[in-house]
Amino acid sequence: APDGAAGLAWRPRAVMLGSGPFQGTVRGTSFAGNSREYLLDSALGPIKAEVDAALPQHELGSMISFDLPVAVSASLKRFG
What is the pLDDT of residue 6? Predict the structure, then answer.
């Protein structure tokens, strides 16, 4: 995390599915118009990702790679 930041956060649309250094198991999926949302279990904790619905679907229980690009993250501020 950048100096002074408590951590980093990503919007679900910024989570890149299909490649990357992290692995997650699909625990949930939902369809909303042009988007599909996934809930992944990972060593980092639960990860929510959103992708275009036109992309191939990942099945419940499947293991997929993902990335959390720092360039599109948001810094979490420290309070107190």
Answer: 85
